[in-house]
Specification:
Layout lengths: L2 H8 L18 H38 L3 H16 L2 H18 L9 H26 L3 H9 L4 H31 L17 H12 L5 H27 L20
């Protein structure tokens, strides 16, 4: 079988398109690159949707935590504390058994016991909590002079938030938020170890890497391939967020513009 035929058969296998059966013998580099790359579709799916939805919830949490209203501040504080204070791995297991229990109550919760939705919900809530704390810190760091200038120009309420508070908050938080996006993408590998099952062997990249490692008894080929894919996507994230960071800081002198710095987080 040529490499081109392998790509045609397995490139989209992780989402149910192409060859149904996994290779059983004569495992080639092309098969490993193709299937692990196919599994990356799920890792990107989890990270992208969780990050996009979590961004808006994180903004709401930051505003709630900074609010003088106790009814808004306390729920935001406890939400952030709960998800930042407990391991993501435990959150996966707790959510899976919770959805499994709710499934017996109503069929509405059936999709939540699958990885494509249940694991996505957990990642969404987790990144919202971490990002909410980042945005809250940025809110507290907004220069008082910026807010006083907005008041002097007659800005108030929504107009002040949209033109002054929110853009300044994003500009200050963006370098740390970039690291959170990278950590979230790396955390998608935990879905493989969670209770959420891979439907009909259509798993993520780690699922296929583990499959080849078990079949060939050689982990030194599939896992470096997996790491290579993650590095490439990480570089894409850094580049994309770097363009946004440049846009947010375009009005500042070059020496005052915040630079993106990758600071690895050893423990999620």
């Amino acid at each position: 079988m040529s490499c081109w035929v392998t790509i045609q058969d397995y490139a989209l296998r992780s989402i149910g398109i192409g060859e149904r059966l996994l290779p059983r013998e004569d495992f080639t580099l092309c098969q490993q690159f193709t299937l692990i790359g196919s599994g990356m579709i799920w890792n990107v799916y989890f990270a992208l949707l969780a990050l996009m939805a979590g961004f808006f919830l994180a903004t709401a949490l930051a505003l709630g935590k900074a609010s003088p209203n106790r009814a808004l501040r306390k729920p935001a504080e406890w939400f952030i504390f709960l998800f930042r204070g407990s391991p993501l791995f435990i959150q996966f297991f707790f959510a899976y058994f919770l959805f499994l229990s709710l499934k017996g109550v109503s069929s509405v919760f059936d999709p939540f016991t699958s990885a494509w939705l249940g694991a996505l919900v957990v990642l969404f809530l987790n990144t919202a909590a971490y990002s909410g704390e980042i945005f809250y810190g940025a809110l507290q760091s907004i220069p008082r002079g910026d807010l006083e200038a907005a008041d002097a120009y007659g800005f108030s309420g929504w107009k002040k938030f949209r033109k002054i508070t929110w853009p300044t908050m994003l500009r200050l938080a963006w370098p740390a938020y970039t690291n959170e996006a990278i950590f979230l993408f790396h955390a998608t590998t935990l879905v493989y170890f969670s209770g959420f099952p891979a439907w009909r062997q259509k798993g993520d990249a780690l699922y296929y890497a583990s499959y080849f490692a078990d079949k060939t008894f050689n982990p030194f080929v599939p896992y470096p391939i997996l790491a290579m894919y993650f590095i490439l996507v990480t570089l894409t994230i850094v580049g994309s967020f770097g363009l946004v960071n440049r846009r947010l800081n375009r009005h500042l002198p070059a020496e005052r513009r915040a630079r993106l710095r990758l600071r690895p987080n050893l423990i999620r």
